[in-house]
Design a protein that fits this description.
423 residues; 6-stranded mixed beta sheet; 7-stranded mixed beta sheet; alpha/beta; globular
Amino acid sequence: LSLSQPYLVDYVATTATTQEQVAITVDNIIFAGYGIVAPEKSWNDYKYLNATGKVLLILAGQPDHFGQELTYYGRWTYKYEEAQRQKALGVLLIHTTPKAGYPFSVVLSSNEGEQIFSRDAISNPLQLQGWIDNQSADHLAGMLGLSLAEMFEMAESKDFVALFISFSLQVKMEFVFREFQGTNVVGVLKGSSPHASAQAVIFSGHLDHLGTRNGTVYPGALDNASGASLVLALAECFAKAALSLNRTLLFLFPTAEESGLLGSAYYANHPFISMNNTISVINFDIANLWGATRDISILGQSYSELGSVFEVYGKENNMSLSPDPFPSAGFFFRSDHLSFAKLGVPGVWVFCGKSFIGQPPDFFQKVIVEGYYNKCYHQPCDSLDAKFLYEGAIQQAQVSAAVAYGLLATSYTPSCLNHGKCM
């Protein structure tokens, strides 16, 4: 089988290497289920499999056995990372919207045009990283005398053993590389106590989006001009307030979030104040520009005590704390706070609530899910709109400012709750 179907129609492919030409010819690929190794769940899709030098076919998402809330094991980034650890040659991820948490159009738009990678060395980089849509995957399943649904069913078992699919796969790719320097922007508001510079609380909001692709501008008004603007507004408020702070407040604007959280990962490994002394990260990505709510959702609230702090200050601002509105989509693992949570720093994403004041009960579903996420997320229509309402973003800023001040003016340090991990 040759991947000769139209690129950016039913598949995308790239490389994690710096090779200008990648040529792969194999006589078979291996269906490795969900591609997960999770000892704490007694789960290993690589058992009995030597993946060295192999091309793997892996399902997006995670087994139903793992629960409704997506874990990091279900994220595409984990699939690539684990395949690298297994010394695989390449990975093709099988996309379905329910398992991935977003339509294939998001995969296509995210992989169109120039792709950005960190210059930092990667151990065992994959020569092939790609996605195929469910129809293409169903065609491959047919070569085994199966359907894609039957492959999913097989992969749901702990006893699953990888399957060899015998056919010739040929991949030829040519790349042009250029080096450039990305820029993170950091604002610093030092505390007034003698030891204030020793510890930090961070507000973050990434400054990048998708740019221009094939002559089409992707403005990224909500994702994430809105979040970066909210951080700027908080910086102005805290600077003017001239408060007495026991800790330093940082305003971080990471770059290359859309390329795999590269900017925040770089900062976390080259911090202004060490990760051991970074108390918490409060992240904004897609501010609430749809109106005021009675509630607020804090993604990652169950992973650290920071969730309880938001609950307290939410109540003081007449807002209840609501659960993750998209638990199966794994939003917690899709923005910059994750770079810090990986290193044991409590981090949350301040998301909008679902109960909109003065709106019908289905407003969140109709306007935000169907109107924005299903139509304009990572699309050119994510643009400035005169209908934007800013009361909801103000609520997010007020609660977050109260939480930050509570951490800055005291010595309280939130702990991780997931067996010492913050994710």
